[in-house]
Structures
1.
Amino acid sequence: MYWLFLIIPGLVTVYFGLLYWFRDKDARPRLDLEKLKIEPWRFNKEFLWGSATSANQVEGHCTNNNWYRFESAIDEQGRPRILNGQRAGVCCDHWNLYREDIQLMKGLSLNAYRFSLEWSKIEPEQGKYDETALDHYANVVDELRKNTPIRLGSISGREASTSMVRRKSSPGSRRRLSAASDLK
């Protein structure tokens, strides 16, 4: 078995030696900026230039989900588990500034936007749905319809509300939700 410690470094040395020996000595990789200015890049009409956001990372005030519990977790010595105790908090306040954000995307000529819905805002307690949150997301979609041709909404199971974690469910889904949210 000790012979592996001799053969493997030898093979690696031979490999890099051959790479060096057979390299193209005249090759000078560089980016020709003048050529880029002359020959514009072309994308077909169906190409999507877009943006994507996660509700928990941009909306702010997501305090009823497993990510908030993760951000708030402390170790045995009482120190935050995240460096410097950073939290999403208000984020960039997309919840209140979505109209301005959509105008910024429009100004960048983006033609697609993938966003997520924060389920813990839609269903803050098991079986109780927040009409205000549903109306908010309906307003976001209406604003997107006016300004963005393609809208892709998603709900992530990783952004589960804390009440969702406590629900009785199948052992597999319960185990996945518990693993994602049961931090001390």
2.
Amino acid sequence: MDKPKDVSSNELPTAEACDSSGTNASTITVCSPVEASGSPSEDLGFIGSGRCEVPCPPYIVGTTFTAISHEPPAPFGRDYTTKMPGLPKTWKEMSQLDTCLSRSSLGGQSITHVTRTMTITATIRSGYGRGAQILVMDNDMVAKVYDPLYYEFVSEYGYTEPVVSDADGDYSREAAAYAELQLSQADVDMTPRYYGTFTIDIDTPANVHGNKQKRSVPLILLEHLRGHTMADIDPTTLTDGVRSAILKKAIIAESIIHHIGINHYDFCPRNIIILNFHQQATASNPEHIDKQVRIKVIDFNVATVRWHPKCEFQYLHVRDGTGKKKSLSRMLSPIDRNHGQMMEFYDWVPECTTAEEWLWEQFHGDKRFRPVFWDPKYPLESPKYLDDSEDDSGGSSDSGISMEVKKE
């Protein structure tokens, strides 16, 4: 994880100035000082060399795209059983450009009568090897563009990456996650507003001689959040009370998302945006955090929707008599789910306690969560739920630990 930026001054970098890995967008090297003509098909030259030689990215401020509404293919990769789209047999010997141009179809279904024209007004993350290109559109939306031509083609270990499958998989999984999130107002409140899935046609130079080929590139549209990621903030500049208040809000947000049936799999400071955070107002005022500060969780490209019919573990989840999904009445306890998993957040835990003790102090009496046993004399042992029923209706408790255990 990148080292958090120093925020001892009153000015903080805004979320739109950082990508999901915490890298400031101002450090991105532009291919050439070409001014955008407003057309995504302008020839911008090539970058890279050998099999990694690709056209310069067309995602330049001032460029206008007309996006076509698109129904994504079924999610694949991670915990999904959907068969991955096939690749050419010789893709490992092909160049990145030829690999991307050889894709016959994105899959899913275009809804051609629904379009949206928009202009890039800023970039959050763009350039070669950055994964999805993240762009500000019309000043108030963010487009996450899954263009395999700008994913890393050769890993640091020299292996050729299946960039088309990587990009399409990211798109399919993130779209599935946001579609599921829209079914719960609580989850909508914890994530950016979601405006749908689209494709844009990119006229791509097929070679240095200027021949071009059209590619269909998918994207999702989201609310443009003007805030700061937790990775942007140095928690050592905050009081213990403020640290706890922000971290607790973040843990609760992820718990709500998990409760509806989504495993995020990349829950960490760079994927948590804090809104209404002002360094001077909040540095020593937990009450301001409780009343004003809001948390949004982003980046669902590796997430799994557990209820999805193509999820490998879908059959494990509780269903009612009609076969429809049935949620537990209370959320699983953060004390259990985050036990031994707080490494990314250690700097946010007050120095006077451990992460596991902090989890217990914050959540052991919270009725929103299923109650657990935990023995502080054996801090490395996992907490045990007080009931063993799937529907949280009661049940027996046999934690196997002493009567001196802390319990709710």
